[in-house]
Amino acid sequence: MKKHTIFIVAGEPSGDLHGANLAREIRRIQPGVVIQGVGGEKMSATGIELRHDLAKEAIMGFTEVLKKFGRIRAIFRDTVKFLEENRPDLLILIDYPGFNLRLAEQAKRLGIRTVYYICPQVWAWGKRRVGHIARLVEKVIVILDFEKSIYEGVGLSVEFVGHPLIDHIQRTPLDQDYTAEHETAGGVVLGLLPGSRPQEVRRHLPVMLRSVELLHQELPESRFLVACPNEQIDLLARRVLDKWRDRQTRRKQQSLPHVEIACGKTYEVIELSSACLVASGTATLETAYFLKPMVVIYMTSFGSWLLARSIIEVEHIAMVNIFAGKRVVPEFIQFGARPERIAAEVLDLLRNDQRRADIERDLREVKERLGRPGASERAARAVVDILERPTAGPEADLCRAVPAG
After folding, report:
1. Confidence class of residue 402 from pLDDT cuts 50, 70 and 90?
2. 20 to 30 A Cα–Cα from 370, which one of 71, 138, 170, 218?
């Protein structure tokens, strides 16, 4: 009996994580399946044969893409060539729309059945693309509850499975020794989560550290923990921190804030913190899961910021606020991300008990909307169900009939 073959494509650290969890569940349900793909170290660690480490090339912003365009184009062409020569039974695309939507077009040309898992955020920047996606893929598996009606509106087969982040957090036990050590140290702990991509850290961490200077003046006993998801970000954060400390020394600051790098301890940092400074992205949902008040920061290149302003169609940028449909936590974007404003908001979050209670109530609602545990398993069962159907079936015919526009 021929083994089913799957090719998974993820181009960012979060997609790499969710791709790895999805692959594990698929193999558990159907042990004989062969899984290859393009992703990152987490997918590779599951035994997936990777063609390229695309997650390592992860970039943020529109103009930043130009700097790595040649490398990404080469990966794209090699991936298309692989699909042409090997024709997997199913192609699974995870987020990363600039790359994956174009790959879906090639898969359609080759007659390869395609599923989109963790769909592009068309509700934020391109609702007109919904029909285009419907013509290219057989099914979408969504992780945000409000996305279901968007894709059903164009007649596309949709399954809402909940956010796989819940599973990852619940499977990641806290380092009790680490948390106990910091709990006994005393003082207010504030978490800094500058992002998972190098360019995010380069832009966000300096602003966060300047905010730390102001917070230290008001809270001299406070301690600041910088959460770094991996060694690459850890090394970069240490370089940024060293430059900041050198500058503080040259200014002859008598009392320097206690700032500590925490590699691979993101959830411990959030749990220990009374409030967090968080780069916009998945980390805002992770912080919401722990019901911690936060200030959200987003900075990118000037060109990317101008382009984003022209196409983004939502009022808020933080996922927490988008989920809630209102401003639950403060957002500081681009030129608005000024240290004095950020520090003032953090102080208010710490000192205003009623505001903290209101935020915690709203974050609890956001956490509930993330769905039940088991998202990766539900997504895997949806994938296996498609694999076991001998043909794409009437749903695919319906998708092909969706009109343009």
Report:
1. very low
2. 138
Its sign, for the CA torsion 376, 377, 379, 383, is positive
Domain assignment of residue 79, given as a range: 5-164+374-400
Tell me if 230 sits within 8 A of 359, measured CB to CB. Answer: no
The tokens of 131 are what?
Answer: 């029909």
Cβ-proximal residues to 30 (8 Å cutoff; 6+ apart), any chain: 4, 384, 387
* Domain annotation covers residue 324: yes
In the sheet that 139-142 helps form, which strands lie side by side, from edge to edge? 49-53, 34-39, 5-10, 90-94, 114-117, 139-142, 158-160
Same domain, 289 and 380: no
327 within some domain: yes
Bridge-based pairing of strands 34-39 and 49-53 is: parallel
Q: Are residues 330 and 219 in the same domain?
A: yes
- One domain for residues 349 and 218: yes
- The residue that leads in pLDDT, 84 or 306, is 84
Give CA–CA dist 295/372, Å, rounded: 26
405: in domain? no
By three-state DSSP, how is residue 405 classified?
A: coil
Q: What is the pLDDT of residues 192-237, one digit of tens each?
A: 999 988 989 999 999 999 999 999 999 999 999 999 999 999 999 9
Q: Do residues 241 and 262 make contact, with C-beta atoms less than 8 angstroms apart? A: no
Give the residue, 250 or 163, on which the prediction is more confident.
163
Sign of the alpha-carbon torsion through 323, 21, 277, 66: negative
pLDDT per residue over 27-44, tens digit each? 999 999 999 999 999 999
Asked if pLDDT for residue 404 goes beyond 60, the answer is: no
